[in-house]
């Protein structure tokens, strides 16, 4: 998706960060569910959702990167400090989340689309200061899914925007491209998400790309720095070596879903069944027998995948929601009020 493509840090740091995230989650999950609800802006800014969808649709037509980029923005935001749009904050000296770890490769097209959607909502009569950037990001993530062929669903709203960011922990709380199933499950569980949730959210890799540096070790060596390197289809391996030669360009990339890279569908899971998962953390979902039945289910039944994805996105959107004085509604997404 949503899953970051970076080489994780030490597991001690990861474990400590995960514990902090879990403790924070326990403290806010009850309040988040009470605060969030569908049609939250029905009376205060009734055209907010349609306006966001219109802006996102326009930007998606201009740049397909807005689709996977927006999903990745939402995932990174929720996993780092909770769903509070802290990922959107920009510091003049570059000391912000968007310049750290895997966040440094977040899509500028997606960031621009969210900022434009916020400006459009602020310009609606009576809506200034009513709709948070965190909610606009959640709406936009929902919209890019349906606009690229995935399920249409209602999204819970009512988040506040965070007032701070934490650049230091970014590289320790996001999954890396070489994670095995235990590492993935541990990290997602620390955020209240199950193995099924993790596999469903991984299905967001049915759209989008990743750069060569995230998988080049996988296609030229038999060992990852972290754990076991799952098998790869030989023809797929050869094609990836053509895309990413040993002396690859820093801008070179490959599609995460080789079959239908511009459609939100279940082809990603079918690819895994044929050992065509580009990242080791993708292919391990089929290679490991504990997660294989879910991959097979989603590959055979797109409705099962869509239902699980919608449920997982709802749970993802409840992580670390800010309440009361911990949050605000920003005038612009890039700076606190």
Can you describe this structure?
By secondary structure, this protein is mainly α. The protein has two domains: 11-174 and 317-328, Peroxidase, domain 1; 181-313, Peroxidase, domain 2, CATH 1.10.420. The chain is 47% helix and 3% strand. It has 13 helices and four strands. The protein has a two-stranded antiparallel ribbon with strand order 1-4. A two-stranded antiparallel sheet has the order 2-3. α2 packs antiparallel against α4 (108-122) and α2 (48-62) crosses α5. The longest helix is centred in the N-terminal third of the chain and has 25 residues, at 11-35. The protein is globular and about 60 Å long.
- Termini separation: 30 Å
Count of the domains: 2
Strand percentage, roughly? under 5%
Q: Note the overall shape.
A: globular
The largest sheet is: 2 strands, antiparallel
Order of helices and strands: HHHHHEHHEHHEHHHHE
Q: Tell me the Rg in angstroms.
A: 19 Å
CATH architecture of the largest domain: Orthogonal Bundle
Count of extended strands = 4
The whole-number mean of residue pLDDT values reads: 87
| Helix vs. strand class | mainly alpha
At the fold tier of CATH, the topology name of the largest domain is Peroxidase, domain 1
Enumerate how many helices there are, as a single number. 13
Helix content: 40-55%
- Biggest sheet strand order reads 1-4
- Uncertain runs are 4-30
User: For the record, what CATH class of the largest domain applies?
Assistant: Mainly Alpha
Binding site for substrate: 175
Enzyme class: oxidoreductase
GO biological process, one term: hydrogen peroxide catabolic process
Pfam families: peroxidase
């Amino acid at each position: 998706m949503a899953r970051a493509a970076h080489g994780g840090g030490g597991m001690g740091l990861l474990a400590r960060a995960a514990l902090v995230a879990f403790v924070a989650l326990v403290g806010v999950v009850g309040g988040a569910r009470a605060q969030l609800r569908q049609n939250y802006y029905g009376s205060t800014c009734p055209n907010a959702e349609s306006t966001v969808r219109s802006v996102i649709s326009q930007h998606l037509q201009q740049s397909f990167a807005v689709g996977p980029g927006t999903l990745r923005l939402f995932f990174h935001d929720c996993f780092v400090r909770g769903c509070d749009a802290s990922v959107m904050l920009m510091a003049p000296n570059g000391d912000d989340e968007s310049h750290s770890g895997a966040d440094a490769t977040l899509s500028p097209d997606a960031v621009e689309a969210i900022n434009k959607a916020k400006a459009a909502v602020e310009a609606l009569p009576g809506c200034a200061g009513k709709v948070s950037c965190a909610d606009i990001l959640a709406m936009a993530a929902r919209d890019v899914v349906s606009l690229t062929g995935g399920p249409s669903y209602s999204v819970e709203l009512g988040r506040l925007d965070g007032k701070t960011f934490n650049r230091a922990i970014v590289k320790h709380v996001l999954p890396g491209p070489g994670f095995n199933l235990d590492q993935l499950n541990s990290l997602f569980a620390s955020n209240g998400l199950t193995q099924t949730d993790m596999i469903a959210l991984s299905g967001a890799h049915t759209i989008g790309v990743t750069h060569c540096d995230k998988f080049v070790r996988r296609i030229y060596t038999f060992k990852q720095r972290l754990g076991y390197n799952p098998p790869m289809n030989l023809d797929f391996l050869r094609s990836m070596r053509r895309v990413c030669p040993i002396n690859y360009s820093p801008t070179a990339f490959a599609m995460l879903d080789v079959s239908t890279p511009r459609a939100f569908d279940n082809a990603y899971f079918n690819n895994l069944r044929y050992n065509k998962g580009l990242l080791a953390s993708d292919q391990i979902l089929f290679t490991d027998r504990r997660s294989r039945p879910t991959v097979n289910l989603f590959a055979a039944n797109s409705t099962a995948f869509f239902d699980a994805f919608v449920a997982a996105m709802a749970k993802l959107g409840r992580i670390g929601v800010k309440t009361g004085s911990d949050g605000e509604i920003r005038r612009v997404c890039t700076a606190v009020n």
